[in-house]
Write a structure and sequence with these properties.
Layout: H1 3-20, E1 29-33, H2 39-47, E2 52-55, H3 58-62, H4 65-71, E3 76-79, H5 88-94, E4 97-101, H6 104-117, E5 122-127, H7 143-153, E6 158-163, H8 172-185, E7 189-191, H9 198-203, E8 208-211, H10 213-216
Parallel strand pairs: 1-2, 1-8, 2-3, 3-4, 4-5, 5-6, 6-7
Helix pairs in contact: 5-6
This protein binds pyridoxal-5'-phosphate.
Pyridoxal-5'-phosphate (PLP) is lined by residues 33, 35, 56, 80-81, 164, 194-195, 210-214.
Length: 219
Amino acid sequence: MELQERLNDVRARIAVAERSGGRASGSVELVAVSKTFDADQIRPAIEAGQRVFGENRVQESQGKWPQLKAETDGIVLHLIGPLQSNKAAEAVALFDVIETVDREKIARALAEEIKQQGKAPRLFVQVNTGLEPQKAGIAPDDTAAFVTLCREELGLVIEGLMCIPPAEENPGPHFALLAKLAKACNVEKLSMGMSRDYETAVAFGATSVRVGSAIFGAR
Ligand SMILES: *Cc1c(COP(=O)(O)O)cnc(C)c1O
């Protein structure tokens, strides 16, 4: 299958999942995850009308996205990988959405950069729903307090929550937990679901899904 066919297939499956989940048509945004693929491999997706992309490394993104953004209007770039505070300036400069706000140190660094640059990416807090030691994210029990700190002390606008369920578990309960936390924190958006489970995520209320290999092929 060509990239365009795979992209159309993912879009169609999202539309079906929206309908069967009683979700409004078009209410779920597709973030096409282009990590490890170079500009020439990404351009066909842009030509097929895709505008929202996700990357997980700041440095890799700096090598391809300034050029791709210059070529096409309306590109929206999401950072979905871990962020180090020494990369906060570059991240604020390049990304439109940062989904991986996961600790106080990075929240403070972002608040400082947003002030400095006068440019504010939309922000999501990453939640470690499976409490996995190797995975980034705020513990579920600490999420409400962290969102409050970001908003009230640091003046950050937190738009949503994001999670990556443990690979070997049924993702449904993790998606349900993220949705419950979002409600408790008064946060509107839910970034959840990847190639293997995005339809399930839509059923649990995802407002965006992050799909890589189902569009671009195996990495
Ligand atoms: C790579 C990645 C994805 C996409 O994964 P696929 O299985 O290729 O769809 C989604 N979210 C995050 C955080 C990722 O790092």
